[in-house]
Amino acid sequence: MSKPDRVAPRPPELPAPWHTPERAALQAEARTFARDVVMPLADTLDPQKAEMPRALIDQMAEKGWFGITIPADHGGLGLGVFEYCLISEELARAWLSVGSILARGQGLGTQTLDPERRRDLLEKSARGRWIGSIALSEPTAGSDLAGVQTRAVREGDTWVLTGTKRWAGFAQAADFIEVLARTRDPEPGESRSAGLEPFLVVKEPGTFPPGMTGRVIDKIGYHGFLTFELDLDGVRVPESDRLTGLYGDQGADADAGGFASVQRGLNIARVHTAARAVGVARAALEDTQAYLQEREQFGHPIGDFQALRFALADMAADIAQARAFWHQVAHLLDIGEPAESESAMVKLVATEMAVRVTNQAMQLHGGNGYTTERRVERYWRDARLTTIFEGTSEIQRRIISDRMLPKP
After folding, report:
1. How many domains does the chain have?
2. 390 catalytic residue (yes or no)
3. Which of 83, 342, 377, 390 is catalytic?
4. Which regions form coiled coils (predicted)?
């Protein structure tokens, strides 16, 4: 009996109704870049827990990818959430952190009180010359951002920030850090989020500003940039650097103010996470498809065994389902729908899928999967984080159920 032909993995294309020639071209460009540029760097640097080189960031900046959602009249590509997630999925297929670094542009850190300065920062963001970090969570406030205790006390035209932030990725290398802080305690009857405001802490890349120190958190995955716990002890921020919102989303209401403007940015972040999770799961699927044809046992490629073939089929079906879902939700956001429940649903579905698929990929690789000789262990480690950041799976379930039933 002759051996079956070795069929190379075929990456998915955009289906109708989401396909346009322009999107197909963007997808192809990102896919080629991920394969030829990002993957070799990931293979070398991820085992060292090293940071991605600035040269890689500059290459992405040249393509305009830090300004995908920034209007063209501010130097951006003027595209939507769909295109942002489309490119991110392809990059995450090679290295999750590279699919994530794009979020540090897209107008982040530009929502200043001065419109002229905002325009200048938007143009810098679009060029990849204004890349930031977000410091929202704290040791005792993660999913419950309304529990933030970092204080901002006004002294004349300056705000003085004091507290501790955790999970601030890219903080030291960034041009700025967005810090969520409490300017006052809520009044009786007010929401617990009342008094929370975002502040722009401008700094030199590679350093922390006066009054701030950082400790690297040693992660098991999501390498490519460092993640910090930050101590703020009298960090001074001018009133002009108090922001009107977080995430820099161009579709948000700039007048909504502070915490109230966070929601749309969170929804976009959740769909972005879903797309990144799909990228990681695709990587595991495609590597496993190749491995099942490469590895032989009992005189046959192990892909000849029905149980393994069926497992691969289930993986492919799960990925296709999650991928179609993020396409749908990104489209809803682009046409102006709030899509809060849908964003939570797609984040939940896609990230839990990524954990299952990468775990199954490890199993199908057998002992070889439990080594650093194969990329599948990287996908497995990175996928596990996607169920945690941008709101845990439990938080997504709470968001969904709270919109279906009366709150207890």
Report:
1. 3
2. yes
3. 390
4. none
